[in-house]
Amino acid sequence: MSGKPSYSILAVDDDATNLRMLHEILSPSYKVYAAPSGERAMRFLEKRDVDLILLDVEMPGLNGYEVIKRLKEDPRLAPVPVLFLTAQEGRDKEETALRLGAVDYILKPITAGVVLARVNLHMELEIYRKRLETLVSQKTAQLSDTQNSILDILAGVTAWRDSGTGGHITRTTAYSRLIVESIIEHGHPKYVISPLYGDNIVKSSKLHDIGKVAISDSILLKPGRLTGEEFDEIKKHTTFGAQMIDDAIADLGDESSFLHVSREIVISHHEWWNGSGYPMALAEDEIPISGRVMAISDIYDSLTSERPYKGAMSHDEAMDIIYGETGTHFDPLLIEMLQDTFPRFEEIAASQQNAGGAPRGKRSP
Ligand SMILES: [Fe+2]
Q1: In whole angstroms, how far apart are CA 290 and each of 260, 270, 280, 298, 364?
Q2: Number of CB atoms found within 10 A of residue 181's CB
Q3: Gap from CA of 157 to ligand 1 centroid (Å)
Q4: How far is the CA of 233 from the centre of ligand 1 (A)?
């Protein structure tokens, strides 16, 4: 070790002589705290963090085994390495200590050489573990940033192909975020959304119409109403999008929960609660929650946005239609749960009014 007491140790022992010896041996290299009982150690650890714990087994009151059990039950304290101090004759106790999660043990009577060697070794490992943990969280954050950038690029690709959908993607993603937050807040047993699933739904919302890049310009950009045949062609954007994501899943293996949620949304956001949607005519609970969320975001934004062939509806008019289609198009329980959330859609729609245009430079001469 560097000799600087920047790392801390809690020594727990009912024997005052042992505590004093541990302090003498370790204090030149570490900041050493002492607790004369298991109870005092637990009280100390409620308020303070340490890098390593030296724990006597035999103590009146809360003994070493009971202390380590409590430490391992606490997510904050569980990772702190614990070294047991055990009596020479208690070999079976060493086994118990290791089984309970101690990283090592030191036999009593303690000597400076053994204590320092063992503590230094485990402190080095602990410092290494913490560095690794920091590195992993930094890399995970970088990966997430990269994923978000790629998503934005892909969303931009859809927007470039489909005039005016840049704002649509931004707004629908914001609506999906509000819906997911509201579902998590309500905590209804029918709608179990883990933080990861919720995050994946919000991110994947950006990709819901990615399959439109495979639809021909003459249909996708046609001003005015589509014929039945053309509409059938547009409907294929769900299956085209799913195929694109299937290719990515095939490349990456089955590991990416994000891509699976993206696929759910892409393929199911036009399904209807009564089974009259497309492409698979799924009904009720057959429709993934992610698809039901996206359907609400998508329709609300379509209704409240201006299109070449129609004007923008007000929030109230759009909500009348959504409530009117509850039980046919939309999941009734979900719509009921979102009653307090819908007014916040209006705020987003108002604040994003100018985000509805095509990306800059689109079709510039
Ligand atoms: Fe769509």
Answers
A1: 11, 12, 16, 12, 36
A2: 15
A3: 15
A4: 12
Give the distance (Å) from ligand 1 centre to CA of residue 215: 12
CATH fold group of domain 162-356: Hypothetical protein af1432 (1.10.3210)
Q: Where are the alpha helices (DSSP H) in the chain?
A: 16-26, 38-47, 64-73, 91-99, 112-161, 165-186, 195-205, 217-220, 228-235, 237-252, 257-268, 289-304, 315-324, 332-337, 342-351
Q: What are phi and psi of 157, to 5 degrees?
A: -60, -45
Q: Is the dihedral of CA 317, 232, 154, 263 positive or negative?
A: positive
Q: Where are the chain's structural domains?
A: 8-133, 162-356
CATH among 1.10.10.10, 3.90.220.20, 3.20.20.30, 3.40.50.2300 for 8-133: 3.40.50.2300
Ligand 1 mean position, distance from CA 209 (Å)? 5
Could you tell me the distance, in angstroms and rounded to a whole number, from the CA of residue 213 to the centre of ligand 1? 11
pLDDT digits (tens, 9 = 90+) for 38-92: 999 999 999 999 999 999 998 999 999 999 999 999 999 999 999 999 876 666 7
For residue 176, report the distance from its CA to the centre of ligand 1, in Å. 14
The structure tokens listed for 299 are: 């329709």
Question: Per-residue pLDDT for 149 more than 70?
Answer: yes
pTM summary value: 0.70
CA 297/CA 167 separation, integer angstroms: 13
Question: DSSP letter at 171?
Answer: H
Amino acid at site 38: G
**pLDDT tens digits, 11-40:** 999 999 999 999 999 999 999 999 999 999
Joined together, the tokens standing for residue 34 give 């002492």
CA of 155 to the centre of ligand 1 (A): 13
Give the pair of three-digit tokens for residue 266. Answer: 């892409």
Question: Would you tell me the crossing angle of helices 195-205 and 257-268 to the nearest 10 degrees?
Answer: 50
Q: Each residue of 124-144: b (16+ CB within 10 Å) or e?
A: eebeeeeeeeeeeeeeeeeee
Q: What is d(CA 84, CA 139) in angstroms, rounded to the nearest whole number?
A: 35
Q: Return residues with CB closer than 5 A to ligand 1 (ion).
A: 209
